């Protein structure tokens, strides 16, 4: 009997990648195949397994990359015939205008096991990020979600307009900007006051979020003037008036900042999350995968001091000891870390690590452990490195999907600032840009470039970038202030 597959129909939420459920993340990380729609934030795909196969289903209005019947067949093929774990990612909640019923029916007919994992639907999530609750004891005791277009010849929703206009306090229309004149006319002609407040929310819960307030009488003209387009929610009802100025989300210090943070390892950075907490949309690029080179017992130095170039090299070293069933007491030399982060990694294994500044410059040679690019970097920093033995503990490879994520963000104009923490990040980012057919010169025309220091600036300029800013010091505080282009109380912002 072949391997039993399963299909997980998961709601990806309205845009903010933090709004996916814990179960949704779990299944995404385990998936062997991921089928996803246009409204799924491409940044979410960076959390899938590096080995996963990705299939883009498109789903733009009246323009589908894959027809629904083809998607159904792919789910059955991968889930049943190939016995794989398949994730079908849909924007918002899969059961709210997500056609999950059709996909579930196809899976049932083919006897493919499946699960439906709910998500936060855009009508609720986007409204909340705009500062508006869809129900309120003083303003709204009922709430309805309505499609803004349907499969009728005109695309105008065929619904009971009288019941909707007179019986529901808050109405959320999905993807209805193209039919906004029809929606407003129908509600008014069926008894809704022309003065009823309306709130439009475009790209809700993301850094591109825009809102527009009006009434049923004037919202069509306002939307035309503002060139409002889908994806958007049309929120009709008295609760729309609750919004006064910027919402809690829109007032975050780094709201609407779209940042590409250069990386050179597989570990997400702490500063990336700090920037997200302050409202920025952060793409840590390129995503890297670490491949461990476990050492044979005969290759493990026992009588020399050891210098570790990264926390990853520490992990591989101790994994090698365990794999060879070696007692740590067999290692007679001292341990050194090239950074405080690496020293902390040694401490996590209950070993005393020292920084190189503590080592006697006349001491005997040591053995350096790390990746090949790391040793090249340290040769530029320390002349003594040339005379030492080197053991490669791991290598980094780029995850292919990360290039597609970059292309999508670039198409959606969601790359406005590039941050280079170090010279190595300049190299990995530039190589990845070139794989996408992009050049540093072209990217510098539409994105500002920020470097942490002079070395990263020199590397960036040499690669062809136009550097806009160099931080006064390589700290989060300096970066935060550079992004705001003004001095603010840093402690308050990051507290």
Descriptive overview:
- By secondary structure, the chain is α/β, with parallel strands linked by helices.
- It has four domains: 6-120, Tetrapyrrole methylase, N-terminal domain (Cobalt-precorrin-4 Transmethylase, domain 1); 124-242, 2-Layer Sandwich (Methyltransferase, Cobalt-precorrin-4 Transmethylase, Domain 2), CATH 3.30.950.10; 258-287 and 399-493, 3-Layer(aba) Sandwich (Rossmann fold), CATH 3.40.50.10090; 290-397, Rossmann fold.
- Helix content is 31%, strand content 21%.
- The protein is built from 17 helices and 22 strands.
- The protein has helices at residues 22-30, 68-81, 100-109, 122-129, 161-167, 180-189, 219-225, 270-277, 311-323, 340-347, 372-381, 401-411, 423-435, 440-443, 454-463, 476-484, 490-493; strands at residues 6-11, 33-37, 53-58, 85-90, 114-117, 143-147, 170-174, 197-202, 210-215, 232-236, 258-262, 281-285, 288-292, 305-308, 335-337, 353-355, 366-370, 389-392, 394-398, 417-420, 448-451, 469-470.
- Strands 3-2-4-1-5 form a five-stranded parallel sheet, sandwiched between helices. Strands 6-7-10-8-9 form a five-stranded mixed sheet, with helices on both faces. Strands 12-11-20-21-22 form a five-stranded parallel sheet, sandwiched between helices.
- The longest helix is centred in the first third of the chain and has 14 residues, at 68-81.
- It starts with 5 loop residues before the first strand and ends with a helix.
- The model is unreliable at 487-495 (pLDDT under 50).
């Amino acid at each position: 009997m072949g391997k039993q597959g399963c299909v997980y129909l998961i709601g990806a939420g309205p845009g903010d990648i933090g709004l996916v459920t814990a179960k949704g993340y779990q299944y995404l990380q385990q998936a062997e195949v991921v089928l996803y729609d246009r409204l799924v934030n491409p940044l979410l795909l960076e959390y899938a397994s590096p080995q996963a196969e990705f299939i883009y289903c498109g789903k733009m209005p009246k323009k589908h990359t894959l027809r629904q019947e083809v998607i159904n067949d792919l789910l059955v093929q991968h889930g049943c015939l190939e016995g794989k774990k398949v994730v079908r990612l849909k924007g918002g909640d899969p059961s709210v205008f997500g056609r999950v019923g059709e996909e579930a029916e196809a899976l049932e007919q083919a006897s493919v096991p499946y699960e439906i994992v709910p998500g936060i639907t855009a009508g609720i999530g986007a409204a909340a990020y705009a500062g508006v609750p869809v129900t309120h004891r003083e303003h709204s005791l009922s709430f309805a979600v309505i499609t803004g277009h349907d499969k009728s010849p005109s695309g105008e929703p065929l619904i009971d307009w009288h019941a909707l206009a007179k019986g529901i306090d808050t109405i959320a229309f999905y993807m209805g900007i193209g039919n906004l004149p029809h929606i407003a006319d129908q509600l008014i002609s069926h008894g809704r006051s022309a003065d009823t407040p309306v709130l439009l929310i475009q790209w809700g819960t993301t850094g591109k979020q825009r809102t527009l307030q009006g009434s049923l009488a004037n919202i069509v003209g306002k939307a035309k003037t503002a060139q409002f387009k889908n994806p958007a929610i049309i929120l009709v009802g008295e609760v729309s008036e609750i919004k006064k100025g910027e919402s809690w989300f829109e007032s975050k210090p780094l709201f609407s900042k779209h940042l590409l943070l250069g990386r050179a390892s597989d570990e997400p950075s702490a500063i990336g999350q700090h920037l997200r907490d302050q409202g920025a949309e952060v793409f840590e690029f390129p995503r890297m995968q670490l491949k461990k080179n476990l050492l044979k017992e005969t290759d493990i130095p026992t009588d020399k001091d050891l210098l570790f170039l990264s926390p990853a090299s520490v992990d591989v070293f101790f994994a090698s000891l365990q794999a060879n069933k070696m007692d740590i007491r067999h290692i007679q030399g001292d341990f050194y870390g090239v950074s405080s982060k690496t020293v902390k990694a040694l401490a996590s294994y209950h070993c005393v690590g020292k920084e190189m500044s503590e080592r006697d410059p006349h001491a005997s040679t040591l053995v350096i452990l790390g990746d090949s690019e790391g040793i090249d970097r340290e040769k530029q920093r320390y002349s003594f490195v040339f005379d030492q033995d080197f053991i490669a503990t791991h290598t980094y490879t780029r995850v292919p999907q990360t290039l597609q994520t970059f292309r999508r963000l670039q198409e959606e104009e969601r790359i406005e600032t590039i941050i280079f923490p170090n010279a190595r990040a300049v190299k990995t980012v530039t190589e990845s840009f070139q794989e996408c057919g992009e050049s540093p010169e072209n990217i510098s025309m539409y994105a500002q470039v920020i470097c942490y220091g002079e070395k990263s600036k020199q590397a960036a300029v040499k690669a062809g970038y136009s550097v806009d800013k160099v931080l006064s010091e390589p700290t989060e505080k300096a970066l935060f202030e550079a992004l705001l282009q003004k001095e603010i109380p840093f402690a308050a912002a990051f507290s």
